[in-house]
Specification:
It comes from Candidatus Wallbacteria bacterium HGW-Wallbacteria-1. With 311 residues, the protein is an alpha+beta fold. The chain contains eleven helices and twelve strands. Strand 11 and strand 12 form a beta hairpin. The longest helix has 17 residues.
């Protein structure tokens, strides 16, 4: 047990009212059970639609953030914890906000020479010429779990794809669709430990919401069956992305590799899923961390905030 947290009231924040509520409930419930198994005074706290009231009533001494979507991964709950003086896990306000925003992440990738597919930004109602070749993938700027994403293969589908993304955000990221193999790399700890590369093999070639969260639908290979040069290159890029965005505690970086072996970083998840089908626990297990040990590593990311640090 980490002595800093011995006897402390730990709330695992979950649920909320985002489009990823159900995933958050699953992740948070697993984490709560694991911390309890390790002897911590941990309980789940569904923040619902009024996190200020929920936090004020529960009065946790430590917050383990397992919220997905805008409020959980966009810096708001992190800012609330700081205002209330509650140490919390994972990345801070700035890193969370930048990582959730796919468009800002892309700008940072480009300025940091991190390879990423070409892209354009379409604001709500924008009428402009697409300067990318088809196919493209359209994504809301600040959603996760593939919510609102559409693969567009011809001009006639573009408007509908934009409208679908605009349901969730006033800005849409239109990105060159990379046909190839899909991978992800997790990181845990401070300084970060880079976990083994996982290859994701969805049944129909697209890792969508159903493929991500329905057990048995998608095949995973950990460690990925790729040559060592590509394996280590992907880990190196993942570490660079984590560091450039200022992530703390844990993260997961998603990749595509095209038919010529070119690696493209897609995005950084500052609060990866922690369900029974989630990828961070899978990679951590391969690196020697069972599920409770991984949860304790995540909890440890709150430790430095007891001294008043803000990151």
């Amino acid at each position: 047990m980490i002595q800093t947290f011995a006897g402390k009231k730990i709330s695992v924040l979950l649920g909320g009212d985002s489009s990823e509520r159900e995933v958050s409930l699953k992740s948070g419930s697993y984490v709560t059970a694991a911390l309890q198994k390790l002897g911590y005074d941990a309980s789940s706290l569904d923040i619902g639609s009024d996190p200020v009231a929920a936090m004020g009533t529960a009065r946790p001494e430590v917050a383990v953030i397992m919220l997905h979507g805008k409020f959980g991964e966009g810096g708001q709950i992190q800012g609330l914890c700081e205002c209330m003086g509650i140490p919390y896990t994972g990345s801070g306000v700035a890193a969370s906000s930048m990582s959730l925003d796919k468009i800002l992440t892309k700008h940072i990738f480009k300025s940091s020479s991190i390879p990423t597919p070409e892209y354009m930004v379409f604001n709500l109602g924008t009428s402009r010429e697409l300067e990318l070749d088809f196919p493209v993938i359209i994504k809301p700027a600040c959603e996760g779990s593939s919510i609102g994403c559409t693969v567009v293969r011809e001009q006639s589908q573009l408007e509908d794809g934009l409208k679908e993304a605009w349901k969730y955000d006033s800005r849409a990221l239109v990105e060159k669709f990379v046909k190839g193999r899909e991978f992800t790399v997790g990181l845990i700890g401070d300084p970060p430990i880079v976990l083994p590369v996982i290859e994701i093999i969805p049944p129909d070639g697209l890792f969508d919401y159903r493929s991500k969260y329905t057990k048995g639908v998608t095949t995973y290979q950990c460690p990925a069956d790729i040559d060592q040069e590509m394996f280590h290159s992907m880990q190196k890029i993942a570490l660079a992305a984590h560091n450039q965005l200022g992530c703390k505690g844990f993260s997961r970086v998603d990749f595509m590799v095209d038919s010529e072996g070119v690696i493209f970083a897609l995005e950084v998840n500052t609060i990866p899923g922690m369900t029974e089908t989630s990828l961070l626990p899978m990679a951590a297990a391969r690196a020697g961390y069972d599920y409770p040990s991984l949860c304790e590593q995540i909890l440890a990311s709150a430790e430095f905030r007891f001294s008043g640090n803000r990151l």
